[in-house]
Batch of 2 targets.
Target 1
Amino acid sequence: MTCLRRTLRIGVALILAVFAVALGAGAQSVNPPGWMSRDEIVSAFVGQQLSGIYPSRIPWQEHVRSDGTTTYREGGAQREGRWWMRGDQFCFSYALPQSGGCFLVVAVGRNCYELYAVGRGGGAEPPSPNAQRHWNGRMWRADIPATCEDKPIV
């Protein structure tokens, strides 16, 4: 009886260990393949002047600084704000209430990126990275030629 209990305990411990490892591995890869990782986003955009366009065709610019601050421009308006990473989500917040949000990013060209909103609190599951016309913003680095098909002069 003692040997059987010991074997059961070891078996249960092994099952729990395997389950914990599986959960840990899943937590490291939250986003489906195709989304840019935290490191890729930081490397591509921090310290850069970005230009972009919304699906409504309204152009914008944003300077993403390494100190966590950002300057956003749209039309004649300018907003100072903050940026941070939440896992692989690129997040922004500005002085206006309910202004900003978090986004998953996918590269769709050498210098063309699409942003998919996941909301301030995690939001709903975003569409797949190749879901055309469901992006919340398309952007490119201003220091090199853009490769987006619908690029305005900003």
Target 2
Amino acid sequence: MRPRAPHLGQGPAAPQPSSFDIGGRDYVARDFYVYEEDFALLAAGATANGSIEVQADSDFILQKLNYFADVEAAAQEDATRVIPLVTLQLIDTGSGRNLFESPVAIPSLFGTGELPFVLPIPRVFFARSTIALQVTNFSAGTTYGLRLSFIGYKAYPRN
């Protein structure tokens, strides 16, 4: 008799290193995680601020960036995918650093779900820090809905 294949979620956990080092910090575990910030109805010419609070239990290692945009919540298909005329500035309040020299157009730095933008170097955001976001719609007459996904993993430091 052949052994039964394990059901989804019942197999052995994916192997993880016993410890790993990022930027001189020693970590003992990691877990896939996504932080998301949404800007609903960002009017033409408007600027909006948002923030992401990095949870206290772990640092966040950012690896990929995705966006999804719509025009006034209208339905869309792949052929009518919206490319927003919106810039973004990110500030890591944990270090006090702007991540960009000046605001960057969302399509220049964010990918889509099928093809996310992969950072050339993963970025560490420390536990209890805040990622401050400022978006500006530079369209002459379009109101966008914008969802930004910050994809990476939680890294649990060794105590």
